[in-house]
Amino acid sequence: MEGDWIEYYCREGQYARVVEVARKCGGDVKWKYYEGLGLVLGDKLTEGISCLEPLLTHGEYGLAAAHLSLIAHQSCQTVDRDAIAQLEWKVEDVGSVGERGLQLASSALLHSGRHAEARKYVERLLRLSPSSGAAMVVSGWLEMADGNTRAAAKLFKTALSQDKGNLDAVLGELAALNPADGLQLANQLIVRYPRSTPPLAEKMRLLLATKDWTQALDTASRLLTLDPDNLAALEVRAVHQLVVAGDYAEAAVAVRRHTAAVEA
C-alpha cells in the first residue's frame, strides 16, 4: 500500500505526493493530517490551515496540527495575530498530551526542519516511555539530520529489535549504512514491495554513490516503468547523457522530459 511510504515522502520533501497519497487513502483523521502537512509544507498555506483546523481539538493529532497551523500562519503574507496567539498557547499546553501525540508532534517538527523543538518532544516521550520504538525512530532521523550516523544506526537497530516490520526504522538503517552494504537491504525492500517506487529510488541512489552507472540506469528504467514521471529517475538519465555519455542531443531530450514532469 502506498500509504506505507507516507513518512518517506515527507522526509524526501515530496509534498505533492504526500497530499496525493493522503487523499487517495481516505478521509479519516490520519490521512486528513497528512494532507494538511503536505499542503502546509508544500506552501499551500490557506488550504493547509483549513484542512488542519478540525484536527486542532483531536486528542492525538491536535498538537502536531497546531504546530503545522502555527508554521502556516507565521508564513502567510497577511498575518492573523489572534490565530497565532491561540496556537502558541496550544503548543505550550502539552501537559495532557499522550505518547502518540508527542510522537506525531516530534515527527511534524522534524519534517518542518524544526529539530530543536522536535528533540524536546522526543525527550519528553522517552521520559514517559523509555523503550518507545516510535521515539527512537524520530530520534534516529534527527541524528541523521545532524550527521551523527553511528548514533542514528544504534537507535534504528533498537527500534527494529522491538518491531522488525517498522518500515521507517528499516529505511533509517538503510540510510545509515555505507552504499555497498546498503544494496542488499535495498534489494530486500524491492522484493517486499515490488510495486512501490521508493525501494528502487533508494537502490538507484546507492548505485550512484558507488558510481555503478550501468545498474543505476537499469534501476532508473524500472522506476520509470512504475512511475513514468519519476523525477529522480529522469534526473539520473539526464545527468548520464550529459556527463557520462556526452550525448548532448539525448541530454536535451531528457532535460525537457524532466522539466515537463516538474511542471506537471
How would you describe the overall organization of this protein?
The protein is globular and about 55 Å long. The chain is mainly alpha-helical and 264 residues long. Helix 9 runs antiparallel to helix 10. It is built from 16 helices and no strands. 75% of the residues lie in helices and 0% in strands.
Please specify the SSE layout and strand pairing:
Elements: H1 6-11, H2 15-25, H3 29-41, H4 45-52, H5 62-75, H6 81-92, H7 99-111, H8 115-128, H9 133-145, H10 149-162, H11 167-176, H12 179-192, H13 197-209, H14 213-226, H15 231-244, H16 248-263
Helix pairs in contact: 2-3, 3-4, 3-5, 4-5, 5-6, 5-7, 7-8, 7-9, 8-9, 9-10, 9-11, 10-11, 12-13, 13-14, 14-15, 15-16
Domain Tetratricopeptide repeat protein 21A/21B N-terminal ARM repeat: 6-217
Organism: Cuerna arida
GO biological process, one term: intraciliary retrograde transport
Q: Count of helices?
A: 16
Mean pLDDT, to the nearest integer, reads 91
Low-pLDDT parts are: none
Taking the alpha carbons of the first and last residues, their distance comes to 24 Å
Share of β-strand residues: under 5%
Task: Please give the share of residues in helix.
Answer: over 70%
Order of helices and strands: HHHHHHHHHHHHHHHH
**How is the biggest beta sheet arranged?**
none
Shape: globular
The radius of gyration computed from the alpha-carbon positions, rounded to a whole number of angstroms, is 20 Å
Q: Care to count the β-strands?
A: 0
Structural class call reads: mainly alpha
Notable features of this structure?
single chain; 264 residues; mainly alpha; 16 helices; 75% helix; globular; Tetratricopeptide repeat protein 21A/21B N-terminal ARM repeat domain-containing protein; ARM_TT21_N; TTC21A/TTC21B
